[in-house]
Amino acid sequence: MAALTLFSPAKINLYLRILRRRADGYHELETVMAPLSFGDNITLEPQKSGVALTCSDKNLPADDTNLAVRAAKLFAERMKIRGRGVKISLEKRIPLAAGLGGGSSNAATVLLGLNELWDVGAPLEKLHEIAADLGSDINFFLQKSAAICRGRGEMVEPIPCSVRAKVLLVNLGFGISTKWAYEKWAAMAKNAPTLTAPAPESRLLVAALERGDVEKLCGALHNSLEKLALEKFPILQLLKDFLRENGAAGALMSGSGATVFGIFEEGAALDAVVDKLRAEFGADTWTAVAQIATAP
Ligand code: C5P
Prior knowledge:
alpha+beta, seven-stranded mixed β-sheet, four-stranded antiparallel β-sheet, 9 helices, globular, binds cytidine-5'-monophosphate
């Protein structure tokens, strides 16, 4: 088969509630994620054997620690592939360690792509099994719609989404380690359980997504990991305030951060907002404008 080029979307967490720390060290979650129209591109080219990766972003290791390479190798091992290899070219746009699911999305896209490229025909359940062994957010990206995810994130239930809105993503250039964020939350929950603010119910957010009600959606945004990140990096609070003061109906940190997103009306003109943002937060502030991808 000839080369395949696939879109590998970013996600935002519209809702992330940590329920408890589990005995295996992971955290039991309830999270609502939405795929975006913004993301990376991945090209898969057949080669005789082995897995090779080239990446447009030199800050991302292209060795066996890269989640896209790990996904390809695990897929080949589990599906007992012999005499086939792949050259993966990753055109990276999603910032690294940003809470936008870039690595997980790339891994899921590689699983879906290799299933096609190598003509394996593995059922989706098999891909879900491999995905769950690679990480917590990869299962979400095996399907293309908004979803509520449970367990450590790997149990995915697609939900209808008719929201039409623009999303402005802003990343100030520093990353937050997911492991650090969860450990901080666990320490806080243990030492000062009253500080874990009660979360709005996820069903309010799910209902607003289904009805396409942007105002209600913004009223139900929640992220249990946000408070700790805002304490360590107070500039993130200023960024959220900026977005709200400049027309966003809601603003939240995505996942374990440090990307913050603002949700705007579908017709909002964001060029002036981005100019003002760069003037206030720095000329090299990273931004992207995306749509929440509606159900296919
Ligand atoms: O599974 P993944 O590799 O994406 O997770 C990265 C880290 O985030 C884990 O090693 C763990 O420390 C933390 N994590 C967690 N609970 C989750 C998901 C991730 O504690 N549900």
